[in-house]
Amino acid sequence: MTDLTPSASAAAAGTTGIKAPGSTPARTPRGYTPGLAAVNFGVYLALLTPVMVSMAFKIQHISASTEEATAQLGMVLGVGALFALVANPLAGRLSDRTTSRFGMRRPWILGGSLVGLGGFALIGSATSIWVVLVAWCLVQASMNAVLAAANATLPDQVPIGSRGKVSGVVGITTPLGILGGNFLINFISDDFARFVVPGIIATALSVIFVLVLKDRRLEHKPTQRFTVGQFFGSFVFNPVKHPDFGWTWLTKFLVMFGYAGIATFLPFYLTEKFGLDEQSAITTILIANLASMAAMMVSAPLGGILSDRFGKRRPFVTIAGLIMVVGLVLLAFAPDITTLIVAQAIIGLGAGSFMSVDLALATQVLPNPEDTAKDLGVLNIANALPQSIAPTIAPAIIAFGATTVLGGYTTFYLFGAVIALAGAVLVYRIKGVK
């Protein structure tokens, strides 16, 4: 699973690198904004389609049983998410130091998309879970390198006063990528094509962006050597010295943990509990995601506007978290498909508001104004890490739940609800923000 909000770490990479004097442009180059949005859309379509739908069925096709497929899906997505977590900031930092005559960012964007396409082809043709695992790790690393380098062009290409507008345009590419991938898979039944076609789309859009991008060039090799210690040190903070920032990190981690496992195991939930065949499950996931994304698009701006108007952040973060909890509980006990779709919409309603208000809250508790980019990178870990941990431990929770009267997937979604509830409550440990 990819980092659902990679722009924070990518922005961190782009704003903490080696900047040439006067490199901030006077205006945004023509075609840059749609090009950046297109490459983000392509990468999200390619990466999140497997996470939402196709990876579960691919693994099911090469596994001996549903129980084995559940465990293997958790392993593949969990390990892959760790590669995404490391590759995104690492590629961004390295692109800051790239002295290629083709520019600082373009080699990473083009190279990453081509390597990723090869990885998708490997997954599509694989008959072994270990080939799928290695190829998915390769895909996560390479495609997150594309995201990091592409989004790091923002401070290179866009004046400070226009960056919010450009970021807003790019921000909508995540739900559009999810919906586009779900829609595409409805018309593809072959495993190979389910992975390669989205990969081709991502690669094509990356190539177009590379062709239109007037990339910045670094003329001289950086004199300071980049060490492993420097890389990991950039994403460390002291929670004792900065407790509000620490509680903000934990709140985000817990709520996102409750959110992260929803999509991953929904295909298995639909086929096991409701007896849907593969095509019916894919169609249901598309409708559920449409409902969730529509709710997110309403609640994200509304939550931010209301929290600004009342001058308060914590109550809105808590309310958003509690709405997600209600959706998770309803999902856990859904008696029919209609209820499941309603539950997904409720979860999306809470998640959209949480993500917008939580980010506003986070900007008010950053430890050091001079290290804003680094601290946003730390917060991005709280977003990305649950996407690795949740799928990894999910099979054990589902297996345990299967031995109880609740059932495996009901237990898993209730566990997510409890974790999200803890995050919604702990936001009140933050004392420096109302």
From TrEMBL:
Location of the protein in the cell: Cell membrane
Transmembrane segments: 36-57, 69-87, 108-127, 133-154, 166-189, 195-213, 249-270, 282-304, 316-334, 340-363, 384-406, 412-430
Compositionally biased spans, kind Low complexity: 7-17
Entries under InterPro entries matching the protein: MFS, MFS_dom, MFS_trans_sf
PROSITE patterns: MFS
Cross-referenced PANTHER family: MAJOR FACILITATOR SUPERFAMILY (MFS) PROFILE DOMAIN-CONTAINING PROTEIN, PTHR23528
Keyword Transcription: no
Lineage: Bacteria, Bacillati, Actinomycetota, Actinomycetes, Micrococcales
Domain of life according to the entry: Bacteria
Main location: membrane
Protein name: MFS transporter
Region (Disordered): 1-27
Database matches in SUPFAM superfamilies: MFS general substrate transporter
Residue ranges constituting the Major facilitator superfamily (MFS) profile domain according to the UniProt record: 35-434
Membrane topology term: Multi-pass membrane protein
Keywords, ordered alphabetically: Membrane, Transmembrane, Transmembrane helix
